[in-house]
Design brief:
Length: 253
């Protein structure tokens, strides 16, 4: 039996074609949830299909749904399809995102806007779409992916850290709005994790990051996923507006 039980629950994980999102989708399915895997299309489509195949082979119910979470119409269409295929949504994981580096004086407006649109606007649009159904049933778990870099900053990542900091603030305000309802909103702020988002980062930079982590290593996806499982479960019913940061001691929140 998995450590946290999600049988009978339906979950949507955005940005679930690889990395942490894929790990969360697989873990939710193992815990008994029906899972919708969101991806933005293009090269991510094949990755999403492979994640879904692994989940289906294990006997779990899974749906693949393509949508750019920064687009309002695409999000609305995604929610309609998810509701038709796996039922009213119980768990939302806002995980879609990407990273790139540029110092502020070289960062284009277009790139700044696009990153914030996917991370922050996407979190808002998906959350707004999920809330009416959650309010109607008085049940829901909303888990937003932040980053420990929202607390410590990082050169060349001002747009990324700004988005992640805003997501933490958004989550806190949302948690206050949810009040006494049986809906919770929380964040997971992973530390540096070996996922495709680090592809192309020079090994010398990865080594410099590793040296700042008291645990002495970068996280694996398996180190991060349990935080999402906990927050999605009944055991986290009294955890509200919090930010859990599995980061190996890199940042103390």
């Amino acid at each position: 039996m998995p450590p946290f039980e999600l049988s009978g629950r339906s979950a949507l994980v955005t940005g679930a074609s690889s990395g942490i999102g894929a790990g969360v989708a697989r873990a939710f399915a193992t815990a008994g949830a029906r899972v919708a895997i969101n991806h933005p299309g293009g090269a991510a489509r094949g990755d999403a299909e492979r994640v879904a195949e692994a989940i289906s082979a294990a006997g779990a119910e899974v749906l693949i749904v393509e949508a750019d979470v920064a687009q309002e119409a695409a999000v609305a269409a995604m929610y309609r399809r998810v509701a038709e295929a796996i039922g009213p949504l119980d768990i939302l994981v806002n995980n879609a995102g990407f990273a790139s580096t540029a110092p502020v004086h070289e960062l284009s407006t277009e790139h700044f806007d696009r990153l914030l649109a996917v991370h922050l606007r996407g979190t808002f649009l998906c959350t707004r779409a999920a809330l009416p159904g959650m309010y109607a049933r008085n049940y829901g778990r909303i888990i937003n992916t932040a980053s420990q870099l929202a607390y410590r900053g990082a050169p060349g990542l001002s747009h990324y850290t700004a988005a992640k900091g805003a997501i933490i603030s958004f989550t806190r305000s949302l948690a206050l709005e949810l009040g006494e309802s049986n809906i919770t909103a929380n964040c997971v702020a992973p530390g540096a994790t070996r996922t495709p988002i680090l592809d192309g980062v020079p090994e010398v930079m990865l080594e410099a990051i590793r040296q700042t982590i008291p645990k002495g290593r970068l996280a694996e996806v398996e180190d991060i996923v349990p935080a999402y499982l906990f927050l999605a479960s009944e055991e986290a019913r009294h955890v509200v507006g919090q930010c859990i940061s599995p980061n190996g001691g890199d940042v103390f929140l």
